UniProtKB/TrEMBL annotation:
Species this chain originates from: [Clostridium] clostridioforme 90A6
Name of the featured protein: Signal peptidase I
EC number: 3.4.21.89
Keyword Transmembrane helix: yes
Membrane topology value: Single-pass type II membrane protein
Coiled coil: none
TM region positions: 53-75
Stored Pfam families: Peptidase_S26
Length: 220
């Protein structure tokens, strides 16, 4: 590009051309400069195993904290070592329960729950059974059939793998407590045989939702 230097004369002005090269050239120069700075920083900051290890430790600690919060306040994870709840929950299955299920409501008949075994003074033994008797009710087992209060009609229990044998009771459930039985009645050490037959509501840890080992299956 030229600039005039009097009538009929033109003079080449390099600075003028450079000044008007446009934003694109300036941008390209800045981008190249940025790349050089980035390469320089990478050369000046070699890989650090210490930083890598600290980063992984932070991730692991965060994962452990989340797991503890979930397991102590939201879900319960329990193993069923016997066949007392077959065929609903098979022996050696692992189950997940909700700790939030009874915050605003009470357990209902038929719920499968995880609770502190009432005959264990340490409070470290957990059982998984089904709620059969509710607070204030009388549970009576006659010839393998479960009757509530003075009803002439036994409970409908489609979850039982086989007919129950024997007669037990009657058991009157105290207020604030529940009467638990296993689904595999002929092979279940449940409230019929405990010294302390009833489970207080605050000893119920969670409502069982599903098994996740050896297979994932909803518990009803």
């Amino acid at each position: 590009m030229t600039a005039t230097d009097g009538p009929g004369h033109f003079k080449f002005v390099p600075g003028f051309v450079r000044q008007n090269a446009g934003k694109e050239e300036i941008y390209m120069l800045e981008e190249e400069s940025s790349r050089k700075r980035s390469r320089k920083q990478q050369e000046e900051e070699p890989f650090s195993w210490k930083k890598e290890i600290i980063s992984w430790i932070q991730i692991i600690v965060a994962a452990v904290i989340i797991a503890l919060v979930l397991n102590n306040f939201i879900i319960a994870n329990s193993r069923v070592p016997t066949g007392s709840m077959e065929n609903t929950i098979m022996s050696k299955s692992r189950v997940i329960g909700s700790r939030l299920a009874y915050l605003t409501s009470d357990p209902e008949r038929g719920d499968v729950v995880i609770f502190h075994f009432p005959d264990d003074p340490t409070g470290k033994i957990y059982y998984v059974k089904r709620v059969i008797g509710l607070p204030g009710e009388t549970v009576n087992v006659v010839d393998g059939k479960v009757y509530i209060n003075d009803s002439d009609t036994p409970l409908d229990e489609p979850y039982l793998p086989e007919p129950m044998e024997g007669s037990y009771g009657p058991y009157t459930v105290p207020e604030g407590c529940y009467f638990m039985m296993g689904d595999n009645r002929n092979n279940s050490l449940d409230a019929r045989f405990w010294k302390n037959r009833f489970v207080e509501k605050d000893k119920i840890i969670a409502k069982v939702l599903f098994t996740y080992f050896p297979k994932i299956e909803k518990v009803e």
